Amino acid sequence: MSVTELRLVVTAADYDKAVAFYRDTLGLPERAAFASPGGHVTILEAGRATLEITDPSHAAYIDEVEVGARVAGHIRVAFEVPDSAAATGVLVEAGARLVAPPAETPWKSLNSRLEGPAGLQLTLFSALPE
């Protein structure tokens, strides 16, 4: 058996706001959209996908580095962007709640933490020069 795609499915009470935020502001290209009686789904491309599995101790360490305290639930979505500081500002202007501003991590990236539509905790990260 082999997996050919990872798809994270998010149920958003304010569907239009979530689509606008992730598609139009964050820039995830729309792959497809479908309607059902009384409902909608939009599938957005998010580049290369990985599934990062961590234990509670390491998750707490990541939160400590990025935020200064344990704040994430059991799911957090991380997006690599070219400039995490600039992207953080754009997403905050679009309605995301800033949890922690961009900060350099021990793994040599600049990471920020936000809460986006549908209550998703987001990390934006960009590689720092060696």
Write the layout of secondary structure elements.
Elements: H1 15-25, E1 30-36, E2 39-44, H2 56-66, E3 77-80, H3 84-93, E4 97-104, E5 109-115, E6 121-127
Parallel strand pairs: 3-6
Antiparallel strand pairs: 1-2, 4-5, 5-6
Protein name: VOC domain-containing protein
Pfam family, one: Glyoxalase
InterPro entries: Glyas_Bleomycin-R_OHBP_Dase, Glyas_Fos-R_dOase_dom, VOC_core
> CATH first level: which class?
Alpha Beta
- Major sheet, described briefly? 4 strands, mixed
Are there runs of 5+ residues with pLDDT below 50, and where? none
Run of helices and strands: HEEHEHEEE
Strand content: 25-35%
CATH architecture: Roll
- Please state the CA-atom Rg, rounded to the nearest Å: 15 Å
The CATH topology label is 2,3-Dihydroxybiphenyl 1,2-Dioxygenase, domain 1
State mean pLDDT (0 to 100 scale): 94
Count of separate DSSP helical elements: 3
Measured between the Cα atoms of the first and last residue, the distance is: 38 Å
Q: What is the structural class?
A: alpha+beta
Query: Quick one: how many beta strands?
Result: 6
User: Helical amount among residues, as a percent range?
Assistant: 10-25%
Q: What number of domains?
A: 1
Strand order of the largest sheet: 3-6-5-4
Question: In the CATH hierarchy, what is the superfamily?
Answer: 2,3-Dihydroxybiphenyl 1,2-Dioxygenase, domain 1
